[in-house]
Amino acid sequence: MLFIGLLNYVGPRRAGTFALIVAVASVGITALLAALIAGHIPDGWRAIQAPSGGGGRIWLNLVAVVLALSGVESIANMTGIMVEPVKRTARLAIWPVVIEVVVLNLLLVVAVCSLGDLPDSGGIADKSPEQLTAREHDLTERVLHVLAVEYVGESFAAVASIVFGLLLLSAANTAVIGMISIQYSMSRDAELPEHFSRINQYGVPWLPLIAACVLPAVVTLIAQDVLTLAKLYAIGVVGAIFINLASCAYNRKLDIRRIERLGMWVIGAVMAAIWITIAVTNVSASLFLVVMLSGGMALRSLAKLVPKPVPVPEAVEGAAALAAPPAELGELLRFDPSKGRVLVASRGNLKLLRFAFEEARQRGGSNVFVLFVRDIAIAYPGQERPMTPEEDQEATALFRHAEQMAREFQVPLQPAYCVSPVPADVILDFAATYAVDLVILGVSRRAGLLRALRGDVIAGVADNLPAESTLLIHA
């Protein structure tokens, strides 16, 4: 978790590619395992017996299944950031997940039943981790490893274990990114203290990052078995799904069909019953939920009682010099459509800025677009109040110096401010929209590893810049 936190401190943009590779490998390993054990499916089918213990035990078994599959809802959460048309995109994304989960899990469950020496499932569920035998522990903690060893071999099982371990780490990284985004958005909406929206020099909210990594690490150290962790996770997920479904069903302004609203009420009622069951039967999960909700509501109350303006990002090297008040050197010229256009993108490089104004003067007094892109490394930005130049000390100082240089060189100035996780796209957008003749960028001082994690802005601009624009790199 700490290593994942270090990667997210610089806002890595390669996590999606890594997650895709791991996901494809996991599906491939699972499908291959299912194919290799297909011959044992008849034995497993014959070994399946009707549930015992009455309706109560059957219901608890159903709750256990929900616990096991409670991560599937993550694909539904992605519909909020899917490209248009969302209905078609969601269908293309959700159906393969449904088929993979249902078909492969059914095959694997039947294959587990063919092992022949399974203990009673109710007995496992009712035991504490210390009471489990070695065989029961393997069946609860790493059942796919058991299947791979029994029906394929140790080597295949080792590879499968590594792939599934990477899949869990990828899921942890996704959860960390989501928690950071939620805390930042809530802070911007004054639902959490303003400190949660402070970002580091790489555009990552550092306090949400600490909370998103340290708290799960502490929980993992306390609850070291999969079943307990699943219960802690599921009581929050199931409760959130119930609240979401009930809210949508209750909202009469939501334009959905009557059958869809009825379906939401029915599924919501089932999820509420499962939620209550988890809370009643698992004291640790209930305690965990109470602590997390109490802590969150306490922070929200603190944010409401002590409203403060959202702080500006931490200043980088050279900010003190930027803060100097500009000298009055004459009238500030405004945009002149009859002249050329020069775009310079900078986060505070005064040498780059002066070079751009000198170049604009030599081109007959071309218009200078000074673009400041505040890099916010948030995966799910939501609808929070966007940051403005007035809140950003670096941007404010840069624009003041740009005005000073515009007066000094007597060229028109057009400042521009934008918040985006992909600076290259913003630069390209401005270059194309305003049909600039020259784009000036400075060479980044970042190390090669940081460029690999965050992406190379210059390369991104150079590969996609319109043909009528020229890229000039200043070193």
What does this structure look like?
By secondary structure, this protein is of the alpha/beta class. The protein folds into two domains: 2-304, Up-down Bundle (Amino acid/polyamine transporter I); 319-474, HUPs (Rossmann fold). It is 61% helix and 7% strand. It is built from 20 helices and five strands. The chain has helices spanning 2-9, 15-36, 41-47, 54-68, 73-77, 86-113, 121-126, 134-141, 143-151, 154-188, 206-222, 226-250, 258-281, 283-305, 319-322, 350-362, 393-409, 423-433, 448-454, 457-464; strands at 341-345, 367-375, 413-420, 438-442, 470-474. It has a five-stranded parallel sheet with strand order 3-2-1-4-5, sandwiched between helices. Strand 1 (341-345), helix 16 and strand 2 form a beta-alpha-beta unit. The longest helix has 35 residues, at 154-188. The two termini are 38 Å apart. Residues 314-327 have low confidence and may be disordered.
User: What distance separates the N and C termini?
Assistant: 38 Å
Radius of gyration: 28 Å
Total count of strands: 5
Order of helices and strands: HHHHHHHHHHHHHHHEHEHEHEHHE
The appropriate CATH architecture of the largest domain is: Up-down Bundle
CATH class of the largest domain: Mainly Alpha
Strand content: 5-15%
Number of helices: 20
| Strand order of the biggest β-sheet | 3-2-1-4-5
Reported by name, the CATH topology of the largest domain is Amino acid/polyamine transporter I
Shape: elongated
Number of domains: 2
Secondary structural class = alpha/beta
Helix content: 55-70%
